[in-house]
Write a structure and sequence with these properties.
The structure holds two protein chains of two kinds.
Chain A lengths: L1 H18 L16 E6 L9 H8 L2 H4 L2 E6 L7 H6 L5 E4 L1 H9 L4 E5 L7 E6 L14 E4 L6 H9 L9 E4 L5 H4 L5 E5 L3 H6 L15 E5 L11 E5 H6 L1 H23 L1 H10 L6 H15 L11 H13 L21 H12 L22
Parallel strand pairs in A: 1-2, 1-3, 6-7
Antiparallel strand pairs in A: 3-10, 4-10, 5-8, 5-9
Chain B lengths: L4 H29 L5 E3 L2 E4 L10 H9 L11 H36 L1 H14 L4 H14 L1 E2 L2 E2 L2 H25 L1 H4 L5 H7 L4 H39 L5 H9 L10 H24 L1 H8 L2
Antiparallel strand pairs in B: 1-2, 3-4
The chains are: A alpha/beta, B mainly alpha.
Keywords (chain B): Cell membrane, Membrane, Transmembrane, Transmembrane helix, Transport
Family (chain B): Belongs to the binding-protein-dependent transport system permease family.
Subcellular location (chain B): Cell membrane
């Protein structure tokens, strides 16, 4: 019996070793290649939200830059910035407001590429709720995920004159949309690329068909001036300051990653397939929807993909300092240090891409019309 | 006195099946009898909703399990993916259980042998279980990834096994300690007096008297440890995002809980299977140790 356990364990170990789930790269040289090992920590499991990185692996872009990139997925309790700061990853993907708090508490990380320039966070409500604008949320049951996902919502309501401590009934929202569909929540938080699609993949019991966009009102924080910057690539500030090799790797990593995102823009269907092949269990139509929606958050790019727009950074910081959530806390109490972001490496990376004839602006970008199927399949 | 071991297992099977059927009937009856909105008293929901989203029909769950995992061309059926995940979770839980049992027994021996150790360790053993799992899971994963023990390259699943063992060692440590020290407490028990009278050393007394006496205390502890190891494995899989097991499936399928509600019940059923398998193995172990139980059963 014990032998069987050991066998299971050994089989598991071998399987994991074969699929390359190794830990961080401590600089151990690969025996049969001279690629630099790089570990990227995601903020969630494989899905089209991270399609650019998976595409860069699949298309060999990282290898072209001399990198051997391992993508580490996150669990529910993984804090990507902590993984980065403790040296277990070389780069991490995280939302800006979630990291600003860490930086204020002394974590030495730098935003080296602002990949998404638009926010994917919305508040959605059924048509008959009469909720059209942030001001309409007063007196309603407002859903919020909390844990640092709530700042745009709170900023939007406070901007509209809604007293977030007394005018609304705040409902803790789960990561499915059952509370919204059952009527426990009047206006629910939803990412364009996930929860919004989940609703549109669900059958409307009144019509027997799927819910349609016409059934829903959407409050898009990009339209109300309270959008905050989301997915960005973060690097270790201390290593950037003292390790020229790491700086070089950063440029190479960004160059390949951004090229991966260009691939996603130009080949969204293939990109969705790549992510599914990388182990995501999302349905095909949901995956493609997500790839398409994520593209919209990047393209067309104002200043070139990955380049931080100073006004958006300032808006994010201003909201992070000025907005109180239901506990009265703000994200940060003072301006973040200069080292919080830099465009140095991304400028170099995109310059090299432009030189190679890659379109980093996507001015002609046209999104797909994705048809969602029941259950996202 | 001692019943034949061969009949003990088959006798439990019909009862177990009846239990499963009763649960299934209760699920469907609840769904059929209560209104869609459940029971709301004032503003508080006393009983959950019975809609197909909140509580899918059992036959819908079964039908969903027969369908492919995703609509990808080469996707395997959901039940197969679930069984695969269950196998992975069971494997990790088994490693966690073995580790936990080993550590638990060692701690118990230490506490049984040295009185100061008992006074010093026992509070810590109890305290260890009050640390929330979500606090230690990322830490264990991070420490693990820094470990390099000779040629062993630390894998993420090992971190999950460590977390499982952290939950599994507790009942074993406490149960084994009670078992090892049970001859001390038994006022009517002449065994210890006898051993002392013959001048038998501590270790000989331990092996000949304390270990056999601990079996009745140990078996329930081992069963608890098995259940804890399974729960710990699934929770740690959720927490650290480990691929391959049921926890990860539960997390991922949660995203389709509204649009494809029957899907996430497959890994939940899988977790129940893993629990059954784990306790089944411990029951077999218990059957092997049955002769040590007879004397104590009367008490």
């Amino acid at each position: 019996m014990h032998r069987k356990y050991v066998l299971t364990a050994v089989t598991g170990a071998v399987a994991l070793a074969l699929t390359g789930c190794g830990g961080a790269s401590a600089g151990t040289p690969e025996s049969d290649s001279d690629l630099i090992p790089v570990t990227l920590q995601l903020q969630w499991v494989a899905q089209a939200q991270f399609a650019g990185y998976y595409a860069a692996v699949d298309q060999g872009y990282y290898e072209d830059e001399g990198l051997d990139v391992t993508i580490q997925e996150a669990g529910t309790d993984t804090v990507p910035i902590d993984v980065l700061a403790s040296g277990d990853a070389d780069y991490a993907i995280s939302w800006v407001p979630k990291v600003l708090g860490s930086i204020e508490q002394g974590t030495q990380v730098t935003n080296v590429a602002q990949v998404f320039e638009r926010s994917g966070t919305m508040q959605i409500a059924f048509k008959d709720s009469g909720i059209v604008e942030p001001a309409d949320l007063a007196g309603k049951k407002v859903g919020s995920w909390g844990y640092g996902n709530e700042w745009e919502l709170f900023a939007g309501m406070q901007e509209a004159g809604v007293d977030t401590s007394s005018d609304i009934e705040l409902v803790q929202q789960a990561f499915d949309m059952n509370g919204f569909l059952a009527g426990d929540i009047d206006a629910a938080q939803a990412m364009t690329y996930n929860e919004y699609a989940q609703v549109l993949e669900t059958e409307n019991p009144e019509t027997g068909k799927l819910y349609q966009p016409e059934d829903l009102n959407v409050i898009d924080w990009n339209d109300h001036g309270t959008a905050m910057l989301q997915d960005a690539v973060w690097a270790d500030s201390a290593r950037l300051a003292e390790d020229p090799a790491y700086e070089e790797t950063t440029v190479a990593f960004l160059k390949a990653s951004l090229k991966g995102w260009v691939y996603v823009r130009d080949h969204p269907e293939e990109a969705a397939t790549i992510v599914t092949a990388a182990g995501s269990t999302l349905g095909a139509s949901h995956q493609l929807w997500q790839a398409n929606e994520v593209n919209k958050l990047i393209w067309p790019s104002t200043s070139g993909i990955g380049l931080m727009n100073a006004d958006q950074w300032e808006q994010t910081v201003a909201i992070a300092m000025g907005t109180k959530n239901e506990t009265g806390a703000t994200v940060i109490t003072s301006e973040p240090p200069e080292s919080a972001y830099t465009t140095e490496y991304v400028e170099q990376a995109t310059a090299e891409l432009v030189e190679a004839g890659v379109d980093v602006m996507g001015a002609q970008y046209e999104p797909l019309e994705v048809k969602l199927e029941a259950g996202g399949s | 006195m001692s019943r034949p071991t061969s009949r003990a297992l088959p006798r439990g099977v019909p009862a177990g099946l009846a239990g499963v059927l009763a649960l299934a009937a209760a699920w469907e009856a609840y769904k059929a009898l209560l209104p869609d909105d459940g029971w709301v008293l004032g503003d508080t929901r006393i009983l959950p909703r019975t809609t197909d989203v909140a509580m899918p029909h059992l036959w819908d769950m079964v039908a969903r399990a027969a369908e492919p995992l995703t609509s990808a061309a080469d996707a395997e059926p959901l039940w197969l993916a679930t069984l695969r995940g269950a196998g992975s979770t069971l494997g990790v839980a088994a490693v966690g259980w073995l580790t936990g049992v080993t550590v638990g027994l060692l701690v118990a021996v230490l506490m049984a042998r040295f009185l100061p150790a008992r006074a010093g360790l026992l509070p810590w053993v109890v305290l260890s279980q009050t640390v929330p799992l979500i606090a230690i899971a990322p830490l264990v994963k991070r420490w693990g990834s820094r470990l390099e023990i000779g040629a062993l390259d630390w894998q993420d699943w090992m971190s999950v096994a460590v977390i499982a063992s952290y939950l599994a060692f507790f009942p074993v440590a406490v149960g084994a300690l009670r078992g090892f020290t049970s001859p001390d407490h038994a006022s009517t028990d002449v065994h210890l007096e006898l051993f002392r009278a013959y001048g038998v050393g501590w270790w000989a007394t331990f092996w000949r008297l304390r270990v056999p006496a601990s079996v009745p205390f140990l078996l329930p502890a081992l069963r608890l440890a098995a259940a804890n190891a399974v729960v710990g494995t699934v929770v740690a899989e959720v927490s650290t995002g480990l691929r391959g097991g049921l926890g990860r499936m539960i997390v991922e399928f949660g995203a389709s809980a509204s649009a494809d509600p029957a899907k996430q019940w497959s890994p939940i059923a899988g977790a129940a299977l893993v629990g059954l398998a784990a306790t089944g193995v411990v029951a077999l172990l218990g059957a092997g140790l049955r002769r040590y139980q007879t004397g104590e059963e009367a008490r």
